[in-house]
Design brief:
- This protein is α+β, with helices and mostly antiparallel strands and 418 residues long.
- It has 14 helices and 18 strands.
- Helix 13 packs antiparallel against helix 14.
- The radius of gyration is 26 Å and the shape is elongated.
Amino acid sequence: MAQNLVTKLYRISVIGAARNKPYVVPSVKAVTYSTSTQQDSGAVKNSDAVKSVFISQSNDIFTNLALEDWLYKNFNFINHHILLLWRNSPAVVIGRHQNPWLEVNTSVLSEHGIEIARRNSGGGTVYHDNGNLNLTFFTPREHYNRKNNLQLINRALIREWGLKTEISPREDIVISGGYKISGTAAKLGRPNAYHHCTLLVSVDKEKLKHALHKHHKGIKTNATQSIPSPVMNLCDVNSHVTVEKLLSTIGWEYLRTCPYTAEDRGKDFIMKQRGFQFINPTDQWFPGLDKLRAELTSWDWRFGKSPKFNVTRTFQVPQELLGKEELRNEELSITIDVNKGMVEDVMLMVPPGLKAANGFSGQAQVVTSLKGQRFSEEAVTILQKALSELESPEQTRNEFVVDCVRTSILALEDEKSN
């Protein structure tokens, strides 16, 4: 991409003297912003940065994450700081170093058509829907200050609705004695950095609860694990809070705040800024955006980036499958090693009563068909096919084994699990 690439961003309003009273430009004016990464550090010392509020017109999680990444990689923030505001259709977003099988209930997400996305920043897993406002603060690395951004949000909430919020030791925003209304994460690089966070306004908490159901049983991993917290919607505290109103309120507060501190510079300072702009996140506006989005939607990124892990499950074998009355309380044990989202090794410990079934003598070599497969329902289908091709298959016993493997892969708590 050329260093001096210029992207057209259309100005939709100019800030008037009175807060919340913008006047529309008589004729829409096109403005241009340099995206050169050749940044002059002296420019920061000699003049204040101007500020803009960008509002994404997409509700697609992958497009908005791609837009974040594009701006981070291409924009020059030395003299122009950006607050990006965006909303998504229902989605679960995991941190860069997390394991989706550990963090989310994949069956619930599939049932409700909820996307699973992995972002480029660290931190824990969050649930997004249209009742959630996402904020991304972009600055040069040397002016990154997460606490200042959170203080800005707190000040906006108390100025508009009298809502008193606090910043927790983990730098989340909490209300009403510790209920979380905002999670936070960041990406720090050179020359740019960003801090992004969520604000829960009217999120479907029932879907959030079920979507983020964690599965600890039998999983060993070094992946970053989310820390569950009680959450609250802002509309539960004050029914007048809406996402649309919050978007405006946060935007105005950002434009009146000093770009280097949390200091409120007042209404006059707003006049010096570049205001609100609607952003159309397409490849035409941001060349290369489609490629970034394709990478974010890929299985290799969403699942294959998971740190190495293994899962071990044991299952009580139904008495009718054991064959002998004297065999009771027998268990089948499965251990699956997973690396880069692919099955690396499988160990199946078969109790005596099942060993008589075709294909399960010795070390049960039939499960080797799982090796090299994605740790997904696809692997179960392959195992099922391998079992069906055995001579004189014991169908009931084979189905039991397949169900055990499926439960292990989907990380679901099953009535047959110990």
